[in-house]
Amino acid sequence: MGIGAVIGGITGGGAALMSEAGASATAVGMAGGAFYNGSMTVLAGGNPENVMNAMFNGAMSGGIGAFIGASIGGGLGEFASGSVGSGLNAWFNRGNGEEVGTSALIGGITSFGFYHLSSYLTWQFGGGKNFGGVRVSYKQYTTMQADFQRSRFNSEEYGGILNRDGSVTRIPKEARGDLQTNYDFNRIPGDARGVYHTHWAKPGIQFDVIPGTGNIIGKYTGQGEIWTTQRYHTSSDLSYTKPNSIVINRYDSSISLTPGTYSIYRDHMIRYMYSFFIINHYVA
Q1: Domain ranges in the chain?
Q2: Whole-number Å distance between alpha carbons of 63 and 248
Q3: Quick check: 160 and 129 in contact, CB under 8 A?
């Protein structure tokens, strides 16, 4: 069998609808892998059987890679998505160990590079550098972006402190069920640029929560306490005495520059994974 390396398409699905995040990532990854494998096989003159096999291999490798990338999030997730998708595609097409390894390495590097190119452009020119009046570093921007992707995949609120030196102090994992209940944002250092946290769910959905913790049991069935999801800052969010609070939701963001009030900000943050990877395309 002959080998030719061709640049594949967007296969990452990113974190999506609550617990459906992994399913969405997999579906988009499968569609992207199948389309590009199939189209390249057609262009190479493959017969219908070859095209179907290529589409199946592309769907499997793209779906698995996208799911893994969405679960990790950020640049590392993109590297994993491209590496796993490309390596699996080569393996499905009976590549040897060297071909699989080379494809995985190139796919991971390509995905990682494209992710950071896209992220940097949106940070520099798309509003990320001055996030609704809060100055954020590139590291802070990509950390918030990755945390939102993980937040949607894991159905948890993520958050952190934006430090003056451009670094981020993430909120401890044990507080993620409900940050307003489990973490006091008023304790942040006085010289911090601000704080951020995520609202991962669609607004207006009711959940059962563990009494007194805010930790989600499941969609509301009449058991335990009721928690209704909000798109922007909630009354609890607005109770902070520290200004510069950012809430990142699945559509846009809200910014509280003055305690007790907030404004809506169209942040242009990348909420989905855009995996470009090199597909080893096999032609009989």
Answers
A1: 2-121+272-283, 131-265
A2: 27
A3: no
